[in-house]
Amino acid sequence: MQINFLAIAVAALVPLIMGFIWYHPKIFGTVWMQEVGLTEEKMKGSNMGFVFVFAFILSFLIAFFLQMITIHQFGALGMIGGDETNAKPSFFAFMKDYGTAYRSFGHGALHCFMAGVLFVFPLTAINAMFERKSWKYTFINTAYWTITITIMGGIVCGWYSPEGFNWVTQK
């Protein structure tokens, strides 16, 4: 099974784009800065080029991982140890019949939305409680990441063919 690195790279841009929108002063930026104790001066004191490049690299890792929770065919591949040369003919028959099942933007988005609610929210809330951050902080960051990975998951799951996205779930 081929990994679509172009889809992963495009999905890795989503956190940067969403961050620009979500943390804009007219959306949640001002409230978020107050909640974390940042000032305009403190924000200007960092190397933003490094921050954006490193954020893209980390986002690439997130997008790479999201394949594993959105593309069910990776589970079938895992059943044969990840090496198609070890597969029996039944594996290839299965993949011929179901190789594109549930490969859609909507399916990937659904799985990642669930990951946002059931994984990102608890992680963020636990950290926030120990860091003595407010629930406002928790919900701003959880909502950002949930929406962001929902879009990312849709991209990595739905973009599987040379034609581009598959917007409709195939069964």
From the structure above, extract its key features:
171 residues; mainly alpha; two-stranded antiparallel ribbon; 3% strand; DUF1761
What does this structure look like?
The chain has a two-stranded antiparallel sheet with strand order 1-2. The protein is elongated and about 60 Å long. It starts with a helix and ends in a 6-residue tail after the last strand. The chain has eight helices and two strands, in the order ααααααααββ. It has helices at residues 5-22, 25-36, 40-44, 48-70, 73-79, 89-98, 105-130, 135-158, and strands at 159-161, 164-165. The protein has 171 residues and is mainly alpha-helical. The chain has one domain. The longest helix is centred in the C-terminal third of the chain and has 26 residues, at 105-130. α1 packs antiparallel against α8. 73% of the residues lie in helices and 3% in strands. This is DUF1761 domain-containing protein. Pfam families: DUF1761. The chain crosses the membrane at residues 6-23, 50-69, 108-130, 142-161. Keywords: Membrane, Transmembrane, Transmembrane helix.
